[in-house]
Amino acid sequence: MIRYAAFLRGMNLGNRRITNDELRSHFTALGFGGVGTFLASGNVVFDAEAESPAEIEARIEEGLAEALGYQVPTFVRTADAVRGIVAAQPFDADVVEAAKGAPQVALLADTPDGEARQAVLELATADDRLAFGDRVLYWLPENGVSGTGLEWKRVEEMVGRTTVRTLRTLERLAAKFF
């Protein structure tokens, strides 16, 4: 068995409400073991047979769509991948400490090509620093997410679908489950 984390997009927003107990129940019904949830924003840790993250994503998306009646974009990473995301330090520590905003991590569905990566990096400013990792885009909004000038829809047009978590959320998840 391999330990994975699934990051679900759009959970507990608007009319889409689901408890962590219900979410764990759905993952157990999909055949996953050792299911745990973290916060109420669609972070699920579980054990599964060795499958590719893409195969697991498809299984979760199909199962949740059937169970919940709506699409749930899913981003699966192995425990090692989550630890790698957390360990990366794409921005200078002094810049992070001085920023009013928290470092953000956008999990990407696919690895963008070089042209898309370059186009996204050209959107970076001193107020919105950007850096790519392995299927992630790190973002440091100087004035917080609500005070940013970065057009996230434009970023997604270039890199495809994403889901965003604070780096702190990923650090805490990794510390608790991995």
Characterize this entry briefly:
This protein has seven helices and eight strands; from the N terminus they run E-H-E-E-H-E-H-H-E-H-E-E-H-E-H. With 178 residues, it is an alpha+beta fold. It has two domains: 82 residues, SP0830-like domains (Alpha-Beta Plaits); 90 residues, Alpha-Beta Plaits, CATH 3.30.70.
Report the biggest beta sheet as strand number plus sense, adding barrel if it closes: 4 strands, antiparallel
What is the count of DSSP helices, taking H or I runs of 4+ residues? Answer: 7
Structure classification? alpha+beta
Overall 3D shape: globular
Mean pLDDT: 95
| CATH fold-level assignment of the largest domain | Alpha-Beta Plaits
Question: What is the strand tally?
Answer: 8
CATH class of the largest domain: Alpha Beta
N-to-C SSE string, H for helix and E for strand: EHEEHEHHEHEEHEH
Report Rg.
Answer: 16 Å
Helical residues, percent = 25-40%
Write structural notes for this entry.
By secondary structure, the protein is α+β, with helices and mostly antiparallel strands. The chain folds into two domains: 2-83, SP0830-like domains (Alpha-Beta Plaits, 2-Layer Sandwich); 88-177, Alpha-Beta Plaits (2-Layer Sandwich). Helices cover 38% and strands 26% of the residues. The chain is built from seven helices and eight strands. Strands 2-3-1-4 form a four-stranded antiparallel sheet. Helix 3 crosses helix 7 (167-177). It is globular and about 45 Å long. The two termini are 14 Å apart. The model has no long low-confidence stretch (mean pLDDT 95).
